[in-house]
Amino acid sequence: MADDRAVFAQFHRIEPNVRPSGTGGQLDEALQARIADPLFLLARQRQLAEFHGEDGGSPVGCSLTTAAATVDRFRPGDTGPSMPYPPGMPVEYLTEAGRAPDLADRELTLRTAARAGLRFLQQLAALPTGVQNSVTDQTLAKFPLVDGAAVEPTDEPEADPAGRALGTVLLAHAPHGGKLARGLAAGWHPTGLSPPQLTAFNQAATAWKSWFAAEHAPPAGSSWVRDRMEHHFAVEASRGGQRITLTAPEYPGGGAEGYQFDVDPAATAFTTTGASTRTVLPTRATYPGMPAERWWEFEDTTVNLPSVEAGAADLARLLLVEFANVYGNDHWVVPLELEVGQVHGITDLTVVDTFGDPLTLQPAGDEHWSLFRLGVAGSGRPGPALLPLLPRAAGRLEGPPVEEVLFVRDEMANLAWAIERTVQSATGAPRPRANETPDLTPPGPSDVPGALTYQLASSVPYHWIPLVPVPLVPGSAAIRFRRGRMTLPTAQGTVRTRARGRLLEPEVARVYVRDEEIPRSGVTATRVPVTVRGHDGRHYRWIGRRARAGQGEAAAGLAFDGVLPAKEATP
Q1: pLDDT at residue 507 above 80?
Q2: What pTM was estimated for this model as a whole?
Q3: CA 557, CA 464: separation in Å to the nearest integer?
Q4: How sure is the predictor about 528, in pLDDT bands with cuts at 50, 70 and 90?
Q5: Range 530-534 average pLDDT
Q6: Cα–Cα dist 382/367, whole Å
Q7: Residues 14-34 as b or e (16 or more Cβ within 10 Å = b)
């Protein structure tokens, strides 16, 4: 028999108990939130400077008119001709990878040059076997792999043994790809080819040169200024008949930011001709720990502004706290999508507030002070309100430095030193130079009792390259440093120091460094391999140069005109 008994559920419900007086039991009186002390609110308004407000409106709409100039030229260095700017190519690649044409072969490592040369020999598969062997022999003889600077001189067997061994193994199998590219560009052809064979050779050479140019040919021109240890370059943009030149006078490498550019004095603000207008909705700018706008709102505990302690002289802290509490909610953000590869400028900015009143805004600043504006080259004055958006190397991958040189001052020796800690081996790997130091044991004291031994100069580490102070110009008291060489005494005779890396450029007869570029803290210059992917999906690989702060002064212990006492006689 089914159970027909009813089941009753019991629960409690909380309901507001409204006082019946006044409104007859309604919520009207509670929702009015009446204040019994209006003087308190007036005091708070005065404390927050609300009585000094010009209006009480908030922005609800924004009309923007923008104009843009397309970047179309790039100029490496301070002077010289400019070249067309390849669309989408990162500006860091153009700046850091560019080098002089006569130094292109020296930048290729032995392994990379051999791989490029072997690829060319593989392109000759269309030729008959006998002809292919003849062309290979002529190519190996004309463009040898280890001739020149690929492997260091043979009179110093302690230098780069790994690179020397690799060059010995590959010498008879692969030509030097860099030299081969220059030879083919100059019109070199092997001898003994029939017209059909010469046509096949030219087709193979053309295909290989296109591949080599895409993989290993650097941008033309070098922006590296050796006496300043920094990059100098410029980009040009055009908009109708107006041209704008942006110069980067002190680019250290690593990433080109907008604030590193100066605008030429002849540049002016963009006009509204050809400009585009759009209407956007402004949003309030917020940050973690921002003071709440409402009185009874719980604030974020990420930043506790009331706990910031500041004395009477801590102006920065006082300004920060005052700005956050008084003006923190007065800033708004206007979203705007801009195209990369152009220099943009706002020609008109009109804001509409909650009362429907339009207000046209002008750039902040004057001829003496500005915010977020480029400076005029040569004067430092604020320039026109322009925003350069150049193609940049986003998402870069950097490896460990393949070369590192520490520039230090030695006040005791009245010199500066370029300490080659690491240089790039012919194999492509970094090699520490301290491990390749020859035996620098100087001649010892005389064995004759009472005799004195004259020592012209003491010994210094083999990888310490001297930088000798010389006059900046003849007759000037200002100085600059010139790269020199040391003749070090050894027990077997003398040995001369020599720079090995690319930063000190040993193939250049005279290398100078400005005096102000080597402070007491020193400078560390490096060459870092970089790989990035451009906006078009193409890979860009190069070895960039960097300059950062050093590690202070150093002392090599160099002394001249020394006298060594004789050895004590042993009984």
Answers
A1: yes
A2: 0.76
A3: 12
A4: very high
A5: 87
A6: 6
A7: eeeeeeeeeeeeeeeeeeeee
